[in-house]
Input
Amino acid sequence: MEKKKIVIVGAGLCGTLLAIRMAQRGYEVSLHEKRSDMRKEEMAAGRSINLALSARGLMALDRVGLKDRVLEYCIPMHGRMIHTKDSDTFLSPYSGRSEDYINSVSRGGLNCLLLDEAEKMDDVTIHFNSACKSVDLKNAKATFKQANEWDVMETGDILIGTDGAGSVVRKSMMSRTTELLFNYSQNFLRHGYKELSILPAENGEYKIEKNALHIWPRGSFMIIALPNMDGSFTLTMFHPYGGEAGFNTLNDEEVLTSFFEEYYPDLLPHIPHYIEEYKNNPVGTLGTIKCYPWQAYGKTLIMGDAAHAIVPFYGQGMNASFEDVRVFDDMLEEHGDSDWKLLFENYQDERAKNANAIADLAIDNFHEMQDKVNDPDFQKKRKLEMKLEQEHPEYYSKYSLVTFNPEMSYAEAMKKGRAQDEKILEIVSKVVDIAELDTTDTLNQLMS
Output
């Protein structure tokens, strides 16, 4: 019996994981990537944002048998190390349970590992330098311009677009707005990002705490740092475009130096090269994309950032995309592939509401990370949540529901977590010290 063929547009993290899983299921997979083979190219400076790999992403990697291998290239981060403007530091754990932590992983390194695995599979063919020009949505057919400048047309039983926030597949669906009743929104933050770095010490050691995500919160702007395997840290400035802290304002070496001396004094000894990096590395944009439907005619589907790009402040962008693959695989197992249209419709209805939920939570966390982590009531709230999780492991804070409880959907975690947050803030506002609180009584209040 001839194998069914799946054409996948986009060989990033989501597309490559999907290719692996579909090949494991016995499908013939043709995977197209507009860029050259990243394993043979040096990554462009300033475009390598580290990723936070957590339970949802690990669950999907476990599905394809790669969880343990990927964890070998990860650094555990147990909490946020907060650096105040006065150069004080304190650790805010992610959870009261010692087994709960997130992992810093290189986007490029992880993508290369997945490409290596996909390339080993007889049923996966990878086409690099193969840019999608157009899509025939009704016939799962796409035209690609390849390195030799020839146009190549490829047809599958289905076509899946995992081609990122600028998705050509999604744009093809948008061109049929009336026919598909296609809704689309794109919202940019008035902030951008720029990468810097902390290099390893001369002995190769880390210059700041290795097992934490570091944050220098300054109200309307911040810097974060994630550790790398080589002893370095990738720093990311999240700043507005205008105003005193704006990228448009920090355009002079003297102004930049004065600004860092005022707002990031404890960071300066670790980044003697920051002016050069600041000048050379680009400013990236931060935006949210929501759309619906995710499928067309039962022949074409989008997933990952092509369907739901989000800002990075909950550390769930990659995890959500990997979860897309796992949920699709679950539904394929349950319903089979005799009716792709029904499968696609069920899938989009399940995933779209959850993608919208994590997009909204990521915006919430953006404001929390840059502004609230130093707030006294917020700190009391986090301490109470830690104590509740330590003494009552069945309790999960909103952050833990999203990050460490992959069996719960994003939409449910958002609803439950927001209700808990409201009650906890009310409770801590009435006490000076959370030691005054009995955690059993507090838990009963939260559950009522």
